[in-house]
């Protein structure tokens, strides 16, 4: 089952600040990813998958983000 970045974070019990710290990005960046305002870079997406211990195909990126490309 595919999950959004927000779902993965909440299920893990993490705050946006914690995820931002772990991935070495700003908290507003995490918020933008979760709200579909921007997409993580491919390299960062790989780090996110590793961080949550999921495969890339398990991560659902929002339609709003994809339509901007």
From TrEMBL:
The record's section on InterPro entries has: Cro/C1-type_HTH (IPR001387), Lambda_DNA-bd_dom_sf (IPR010982)
Q: Which Pfam family would be a valid example here?
A: HTH_3
Protein name per the record: HTH cro/C1-type domain-containing protein
UniProt domain HTH cro/C1-type: residue ranges: 5-59
The record, for PROSITE patterns, names: HTH_CROC1
Taxonomic lineage: Bacteria, Bacillati, Bacillota, Clostridia, Eubacteriales
The molecular function GO annotations come to:
DNA binding
Q: Which UniProt keywords apply?
A: DNA-binding
Say if the entry is tagged with keyword Isomerase.
no
Q: Does the keyword DNA-binding apply?
A: yes
């Amino acid at each position: 089952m595919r999950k959004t970045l927000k779902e993965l974070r909440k299920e893990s019990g993490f705050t946006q600040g914690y995820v931002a710290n772990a991935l070495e990005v700003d908290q507003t960046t995490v918020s933008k990813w979760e709200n579909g305002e921007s997409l993580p870079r491919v390299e960062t997406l790989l780090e996110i998958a590793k961080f949550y211990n999921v495969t890339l195909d398990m991560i659902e990126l929002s339609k709003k983000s994809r339509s901007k490309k």
